[in-house]
């Protein structure tokens, strides 16, 4: 059985005008997602237009459940820089309950029993003065 991965290194985000609300919320342990006010589609990655309906009326930021499922993942057995001492670790796509798929890490999971389709929930880990969302088994 593999040892569950705990905290992983994280570089502080460099927010842009388009994703600053996401990082502001993450610093407060909240997950928010941009949603198109025209068609109600959730948008990931944050941007100023809707890729579904092509609306350019901006986005609204709404609270997300913080829950999802593992869509795909890989276990990295090597890392560079600060990541090398944390191998093995999981890089995954998580499909949020709201629909978007986000690239993230799975933490606190038994690497031998992690499966596609597993339920996960968001956790926030320090990244300099901010925090980054990662996911753990629910």
* Radius of gyration using CA atoms only: 16 Å
Q: Tally the structural domains.
A: 1
Quote the average pLDDT.
Answer: 90
What is the H-and-E element order? Answer: HEEEEEEE
Distance between the termini: 19 Å
Strand content: 35-45%
Question: Would you kindly provide a written description of the structure presented here, covering whatever features stand out?
Answer:
Helix content is 5%, strand content 36%. Mean pLDDT is 90; it is low at 1-5. It has one domain (20-137): OB fold (Dihydrolipoamide Acetyltransferase, E2P) (Beta Barrel), CATH 2.40.50. The strands form two sheets. It has a five-stranded antiparallel beta sheet, with helices on one face. It has a two-stranded antiparallel ribbon with strand order 1-2. The chain has one helix at residues 20-26, and strands at residues 32-35, 60-63, 67-76, 89-96, 101-106, 119-127, 130-137. It has 138 residues and is mainly beta.
Helices and strands, with pairings:
Layout: H1 20-26, E1 32-35, E2 60-63, E3 67-76, E4 89-96, E5 101-106, E6 119-127, E7 130-137
Antiparallel strand pairs: 1-2, 3-4, 3-6, 4-5, 6-7
Quick structural summary:
The protein is mostly beta strands and 138 residues long. Helices cover 5% and strands 36% of the residues. The protein has one domain: OB fold (Dihydrolipoamide Acetyltransferase, E2P).
């Amino acid at each position: 059985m593999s040892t569950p991965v705990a905290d992983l290194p994280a570089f502080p985000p460099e927010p842009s005008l388009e994703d600053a609300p996401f990082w502001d919320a993450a610093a407060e342990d909240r997950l928010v997602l941009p949603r198109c006010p025209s068609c109600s589609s959730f948008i990931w990655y944050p941007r100023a237009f809707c890729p579904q309906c092509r609306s350019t009326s901006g986005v609204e930021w709404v609270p997300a459940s913080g829950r999802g499922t593992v869509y795909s993942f890989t276990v990295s057995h090597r890392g560079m820089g600060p990541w090398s001492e944390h191998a093995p670790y999981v890089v995954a796509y998580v499909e949020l309950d709201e629909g978007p798929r986000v690239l993230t890490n799975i933490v606190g999971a038994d690497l031998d029993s992690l499966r596609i389709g597993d339920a996960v929930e968001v956790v926030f880990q320090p990244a300099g003065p901010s925090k980054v969302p990662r996911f753990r088994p629910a």
